[in-house]
What does this fold into?
Amino acid sequence: MNFFEELFENKEEPLKKIEVEKDYKKNLEIIKEYIGGSKDVIFREFTIGNEKIKCGAIYTEGLANQDLVSEHILKNLMLLSRMAEIKTHTIKQKIYELLKNMTISATDISEIEDINKAIDAILSGDTVLILENHDKVLVVASKGWPMRGVGEPSTETVVRGPRDGFTETMRVNTALVRRRIRDPKFKVKQMQVGRRSKTDIAIMFIEETVNKDVLEMVKERLDKIDIDVILESGYIEQLIEDNWKSPFPQIQHTQRPDVVAAAIYEGRVAIVVDNTPFVLLAPSTAVTFLQSPEDYNERFFIGSAIRILRVISIIMALFMPGLYIAITSYHPGMLPTDLALYIAGSRMNVPFPAFIEAFIMEAALELLREAGIRLPGAIGATIGIVGGLVLGQAAVEAGIVSPLMVIIVALTAIAGYSAPNYSFAISFRLLRFMLMALAGFLGLYGIILGSIIILTHLCTLKSFGVPYLSPIVAGEMTLKDFKDVFVRAPIHMMKTRPQFLHRSDSTRLKEMRRGDRHGEK
Amino acid sequence: MGRNNDRISSVQLAMILSVSIIGVGILSLPRSVAEAAGPDAWILVLMGTLMILIIALVISKIVTKFQQKTMIEFSEIIVGKPIGILITIGFSIYGIIFAAVEARLCAEVIKEYLLFNTPTEVIMVTLLLVSVYLVRSGIEPIARMAQIIFPIVTIIAILLIIPVLPEIDWTHFLPVLKTPILKLIKSLPVVILSFIGIELALVFSTFVIDTKNIKKNMYITVGLVAMVYFFIVSITIARFGIQETIHITWPTLELFKTVDIPGAFVENIEIFVIAIWILSVFMTLVSWYFSASLTISWVLKVKEQKYFVLPLIPIIYYLALLPDNLAQAMDYVDRFVNYFGIFYMIVLPIVLLGISAIRKGGRKGA
Amino acid sequence: MRKLKLLIISVMSIVIITGCWDKVEIDKRAFVALIGIDKFENNADQKKDKKNRYTVTIAYPNTGVIAGKGQGEPKFIYTSTGENFSDIINGLNTRLGKTTFFRHTKAIILGEKLAKDEKLFREVLDVIERSPELGRKIHLIIAKGEAKEILDTSTKDETVLGLFIRELMEQTRKTPRIADADLGYILRSLHESHTAITPKIVSSKDEFKIAGAAVLKDFKMIGWLGELETKDLMFMQDKIKSSEMNVVKDDIIIALRITDVSTKMRVYEEEGEIVTHFDVDGEANIQQHLFEVRDQPLDHEYLEKIGNLAAGNIKEEIKTTYKKIQDDYQADLVQAGESLRKHEPDTWDKVKENWDEIFPTTKVKVDVKIKVRRAGVTK
It folds into this structure.
């Protein structure tokens, strides 16, 4: 047995097994006892063929495709089976084969012995058939519920790149990824998490490129989860991340199949959770949070420039308000003379110290942002304009804040939104307040202390055993890995996958473009 | 859950050593070499670097000979248990004193340039508490931190010096080689002592996985630091001249005070430079602090060094507050740290290597 | 982990409860742009028990006016007297209601009398050098008369006096009549050869002028250099960027603009005497000739002649000024001694003991080459 089979072997003992009995009535009773009483579970009893074999079909309305149930199961069993000339004794012995081969025209049908499993099947949309005098139940795949179509994701929008995004259905999501990876070594392993919710989770990876340590860690941590309900991949994320005390996300989430496919190719592991369009990617490092799919789609000059811009803007969003406080209240010597005099003049009637001033404005900004998200579309935009323009203008005129502060706040806001990952950006927004407080108490020295604390934290942090700041802090300093950090090297130069994810098959691109320009011979 | 398995590469060791060597000393280095060698300061730096290369060779010989053994283990093997323990205890005292010195001098500079009225105590306590966080996290995060901070500090420093270049005057290095050779040799300790920190390799190399590369990377360390020193010393002297350099307490900072970036957002960038420099001093402090707590844990045979980090704070703090002023602090440096430094940097490695070589030879003969 | 939390909380509380010793909001600072220091004159009303020695005048701008918010005086000027500089600044802080801040100080103006008093002047130099706030980029200027008068001058166009002086000093790029000497140069030169020059400032009613230079020797001012002499000295120090000059040829006054000047100074021993050799190289543009001069084509030969004439003029001027420095001041302003130390260390060893006596006896040799490159747009 190879590594992967061993890893995903079902080691757990199933819950207590309830054997299917020969008695048709009793079987029905047991199932009814478990899930009866709900209006949406339909028990349909009928007889098959001329022999009038009693049969019960159980399915959940809404989850099962009603057309399929009626057209391909009920109709076939009740009407068409009469045309088949079958002898009574054969029916009784080989009813499963008969039904499977000759009667039911659904794609997937199986026979199980455990009523618990049958109940799971019913609740996930399949149809269960109970037959008279048969000690097994039949499960016919009939999943089909109303779902959202594949649409453009609302976050992580790109100008150039595919427009499809994940939906709430796991199967659709895995299919979207599978479409991009036709490698036979690409595996989708499935498991269920949640005592009550029994949420399906799919783990996706390519056997030849995946970092086995990471995969093992993912599986191990997923196995350890013992929770009643998983509603969103955020639950999983928080339960399996390395350090819950960190403000930084250690697992990336995305709505874009192309991002997931790229990550899987790089050797990372994707975790798809049912009922949410957000797919998790592990391990994730600071660098991966700064990458946007568009970097690769555009030509490398543009891709690199935009990425550098993003790094700068993250740093700006983190430090600017703090620096404003430190410089205006502690070290005005750092400003050019003319600017210092101007700031001093414009702050002349402001009653608060710079720290309070900055705090008011930054808090107001966060408030605006929150309100903008919660309110429905059109009103949200209005709130933004009203808050941003009118409030800012009025605050300056009232003399509560200085004009420069408004500029700083606006700049930090814009800079903060340029990070492609929402949860990464939000952690920086939070840390900004810490730096502001430190700057308010110790000036530039406070900012340096704050940066040291943040850096130390980033240095201790790991995501599934991979240092968070890799490859910047990799043990072996090679230039190879820096090709996709601050700049995005031309694709024909990125010959290997990132080393820091330690995988086996590192070749990404075979030799090309050694003078063989297109059109030249 | 942050699993740190305490393994670093030799490249990371080089980075730790580099940031540990570059600390408070760099601010006054141009002055002390100018004092010692006048216009031949750059020759002095080069000569000192050569000496340090030999020391680096000796140290790396020892640590590669006793692969992944801790300092206490290999010194016990070479000179016997009691002396081995004594050496290790001595190193932890040295580490504590050096950490205290770094903290004090850093606080003095901050007080002089950034926060004039804030009590030294507050500056020091905050610095120490922040360093506790990193020291407790162990060698791996320290190594990563060093990897980030070293390039940041050096690159920013070099970039900021560029605007000075049109104003420098290389004739300040004339006449060449007029200083008597004997005087140069006598003042070699000035440069050698500015490389204090390289002996940390004795302690930290136990964590290194690829021992065979230690020698190469120790050379790289010496090379990098020497380049930084050479650059700072030559630019400072070329900008100010010998007389002026000798006259200024912290010529390196004064150099940045003359930098005027045309049309930039910042004026008086020495404030900014100090902020960056704090990062470097912080790493020096952390290295010494960590080595102190580590050696103590070896002596007491405790597996985790973490437990000794917090209890050391009051000691370091008290020691740092002992000198009344900067002059006295410098005096203490001369009195204790330099002796310790010479012992651990030069005497100990040579003696250890010598003894182990003799023993090995003896065993072969027997 | 609980310990760590406690630690963080304790750090935060220590900082928060006790913090903010140095916090002074930017609008509560007085950005002193200009400092004037004078020697305290022993007036009749001086009380005997008070040992006033200095008069310090500071000027800082009304930032409200600059930002267009407030009204009133564009600048505030305060004067105080006391025994030493920091005393006075402390005293001023009690009167200002703002904290004085010196990182943006652009210039320090010293009164003539103070500059001539060695002890006071050395004290002032030390204050400036020791202060972490005052950088080496500021200008030290000596005023003819009192420094206070300069600060009291209200100029017409620029409200911030210090900035105005900075702008004026920027003019060194265009005219050599202002001594190009910032504090860094002055300190270095004083440390190395005990001599230096500083720019000179003169005020009239509503304007002032920076031109010429004051000569410092052994930490006190010993005399002035005129504007033209300053220009020559700038030639010698290789600090000139461009200069104007007139040559007379065939009764035609030709105005030249000298650019791209570079001077190499060499000091060496020749037949028992120290020789200072200046090698000046430059280019010239003709700015003015004469209208309708028919028989004088501006050909190469003619231009060369003009260049040689200009070179001759410069040579004479430099020689005269060098003599003046030697004879009147005995001050090694060109740092010939330093040059000797660097390039001819053996000679220097012989003369360094009594360089002060030897310098006035040194010979000077000047080689000037001026090439006329452009003659304007008329033929």
In short: Residues 115 and 221 of chain C are 5 Å apart (CA to CA). The domain at 231-374 of chain C is CATH 3.30.300.210 (GMP Synthetase; Chain A, domain 3). The interface with chain B takes residues 3-4, 7, 11, 14-15, 18-19, 21-22, 103-104, 129, 132, 135-137, 184, 187-188, 191-192, 339, 341-343, 345 of chain C (CB under 8 Å). The first strand of chain C starts at residue 29 and ends at 31.
